[in-house]
Amino acid sequence: MNRCEHTLWLSWPMPAETNTPYETAMAEISAAQNLPKTVVLKQTHTGDEAYEIRNEAEQIVISGDDAGLLYGVYEILMADGRIENGIRKPAYAYRMINCWDNMDGTIERGYSGRSLWFDNGRIAYDASRIRLLARHLASVGINVICINNVNVHQDALSLIDEHLDDVAELASIFRAYHVRLMLSISFAHPLSDGIATADPLNPAVIGWWERRTALVYSRIPDLAGFLVKADSEGRPGPFTYGRSHAEGANMLAQALQQYGGILVWRCFVYNCRQNWRDTVTDRPKAAYETYQPLDGQFLSNVILQVKNGPYDFQVREPISPLLLSMQKTQLALEVQLAQEYTGQQVDIYEMPPLFKEIWDGMGRDRIMAAAAVSNLGNDMNYTGHPFAALNLYAYGRFASDPDSNPEQVTDDWVRLTYPSFSEQDRKLLAYILMSSRSVYEKYTTPMGLGWMVTPGLHYGPSPEGYEYQAWGTYHRADRDAVGIDRTSNGTGYTRQYPDALCRLYENSETCPDNLLLFFHRLRYDTVLKDGRTLIQRMYDEHFEGVEEVYRMAELLRSMPFPQEDAAVIEERMQRQLINANEWCDVMNTYFHRLSGVQDEHNRKIYD
Ligand code: GCW
Fold first, then answer.
1. Distance 77 CA to ligand 1 centre (A)
2. Greatest Cα-to-Cα distance within the chain, rounded to the nearest angstrom
3. For a substitution probing ligand 1, which of 186, 312, 458, 469 has the most ligand atoms within 8 Å of its CB?
4. Minimum mean pLDDT among 4-13, 221-230, 404-413: which range?
5. H/E segment holding residue 98
6. Which distant-in-sequence residues (6+ apart) come within 8 Å of 101 by Cβ?
7. Residue 38 forms beta bridges with which residues?
8. Phi, psi (5° rounding) for residue 184?
9. How far apart are CA 128 and CA 144, in angstroms?
């Protein structure tokens, strides 16, 4: 059996090459011969990717469009036995993956090899691997993939220039699976093409973007649109010209409108040149302060893309208040599958519980699109750690149906990925995966503290690595207390939330324990709800986290993983154990040295 065909969760053979989603659906059925017989009927009473499943003598999929048929077929083929009659429709029109791939083949924050489609300044790929990927994306309803980094470096300008034909060819592979391409663009692109400015209100700039967009759509008529990171971490943007982000985004959206394209504008704007002595500026407030006043000013094909938390994909953050506050603007939620701050696909950190928390915190109707920073690369198994594939799978499931149950999603992935496992092994693995996030949280930064990672790299502990830097990520620990007061008495961040949430977070008695140090500055001797002091809780969590990793390692060794997976899982687990011990010891030593408080249980803390 070709290893390549068994690296992700679809285990039946790869079907023959096709051109349309309809043909793909038919090909999937014939490739999966041992699965229940399915009949595909094409009707027109549904549409917009919706489909109906009917169990009669045969299982029937009915849809008004090819995409709906494809999704219905995957649902039947991936199900465990009979599935319920009914109509389903993906919750959002755009279910996107954002790849941070550079033209030289590197991937920003990539932990599973190099780019699957860029190398050495050009487009180069193994078409069968791309098809396999497209197939998996479609199987969980993902329908847009942005192929290049939001940090658009000079060589990536070629994607909408001399490399456009190659992009179009890549688009055709994804198209058969109803996955549309998207491109990240640079706001300053006109400057490299003989225009003296990139001012969004300048007629020469407007004309340049209109012509360029027309060219792009002449080659890729179903391009989903453009993705933009502007005025963020040094990227160019409208601020340079004294223009607002509404003016900047609308100019590009206007150019896209006649082709049905969307303009996705990221809201990751903050002062990354903060003076650490400045205690008034509070980075989590930045996105709301920048975008909330612009609510209602964006054209109908602009989508503002907001990270799930107000900081930057930390282990645990509260929901971004911007996601709760825009009434007249279309929003996309952005999550990060790439485990930048969450173990880098070495440590196990599974996201189904995170996705549940985010959607519960936000509500399913606040957004009209979802985006996930990709965890993909050209490693044989695509995601580095075989378990990281669950994050991709789960993202697709939640983006299609935000009411998904995280346990169910995890169980399904385990069953599909390791079909030969006994029920007991399946349950055990699902349990380990479901608890992995809280284990990671315990040995790194419990109670919402965040950061404290090695600067730049973002793996491993460095309690003061970012403390005196310009990134706005401080904890201000001293001998008595730790954390930033973000209540009305402090930076006032809590006031960005609707009243009920504001009240909940304001008060350290009602604030959930796992976010206490996100919202409050607390003394080490503060007594928490469970009767322990803050410092004791800190020590306990770190020690427990490490113990739980040892237990996890032992359980995983008892499971019958296929050989290739077993080797990768064991090798990474060794590194996770080292990392967990390092976090535990560094963090406990750090707080012990500062506070001088002894561990009640007299465990080993290095001085
Ligand atoms: O967290 C930061 C990452 C950057 C990334 C940025 C972003 C693409 O460290 O590598 O840049 O987020 O989201 O734009």
1. 37
2. 73
3. 312
4. 4-13
5. strand 94-98
6. 107, 110, 115, 116, 117, 118, 147, 148, 149, 374
7. 59
8. -80, 135
9. 19
Separation between Cα atoms, residue 201 and residue 198, nearest integer Å: 9
How far is Cα 117 from Cα 102, in angstroms, rounded to an integer?
Answer: 10
Assign 36 a pLDDT band (cuts: 50, 70, 90).
Answer: low
Which residue lies with its CA nearest to atom 12 of ligand 1?
Answer: 312
Distance CA 248, CA 250 (A): 6
Pull the structure tokens for residue 583.
Answer: 């976090």
Q: What rounded mean pLDDT belongs to the chain?
A: 96
Question: How many angstroms separate the alpha carbon of residue 602 from the centre of ligand 1?
Answer: 40
Distance from C-alpha of 398 to C-alpha of 254, rounded to nearest angstrom? 31
Radius of gyration of the chain (CA): 24
Give a three-class secondary structure readout of 403-439. Answer: CCCHHHHHHHHHHHHCCCCCHHHHHHHHHHHHHHHHH
Ligand 1, CB cutoff 6 Å, lining residues: 100, 108-109, 150-151, 229, 268, 312
For the record, the structure tokens of 426 come out as 């399946």
Strands 94-98 and 86-88: unpaired
C-alpha 14 to ligand 1 mean position (Å)? 35
Q: Is residue 373 helix, strand or coil?
A: strand
Task: State which ligand 1 atom lies nearest to the alpha carbon of 100.
Answer: 8
Closest residue by Cα to atom 7, ligand 1, is 268
Q: How far apart are CA 83 and CA 75, in angstroms?
A: 8
Summarised one tens digit per residue, pLDDT across range 181-234 is 999 999 999 999 999 999 999 999 999 999 999 999 999 999 999 999 999 999
Q: Give 4's pLDDT tier (boundaries 50, 70, 90).
A: very low
For residues 138 and 123, what is the distance between their CA atoms, to the nearest angstrom? Answer: 23
Cα of 546 from ligand 1 centre, angstroms: 29
Among residues 75, 140, 106, which one has the least CA distance to residue 389? Answer: 140
- Which residues make Cβ contacts (< 8 Å) with residue 289, sequence separation at least 6? none
Domains detected in the chain: 3-88 (no CATH), 94-417 (3.20.20.80), 420-484+521-607 (3.90.1330.10)
Do the Cβ atoms of 14 and 135 come closer than 8 Å?
Answer: yes
Q: Name the 3-class secondary structure at 216.
A: helix
Atom of ligand 1 nearest to the CA of 109: 10
H/E segment holding residue 396 = helix 388-400
Query: What pLDDT score does 540 carry?
Result: 98
Active site residues: 233, 312, 340
114 Cα: distance to centroid of ligand 1 (angstroms): 17
Q: From the alpha carbon of 150, which atom of ligand 1 is closest?
A: 8
Residues whose CB is less than 8 angstroms from the CB of residue 497 and which lie 6 or more positions away in sequence, other chains included? 321, 324, 505
Q: Which atom of ligand 1 is nearest to the CA of 232?
A: 14
Judged by phi (left if over 0) then psi (alpha if -120 to 50, else beta), residue 458 lies in left
Question: Which of 108, 146, 153, 451, when mutated, tests ligand 1's pocket best, judged by the most ligand atoms within 8 Å of its CB?
Answer: 108
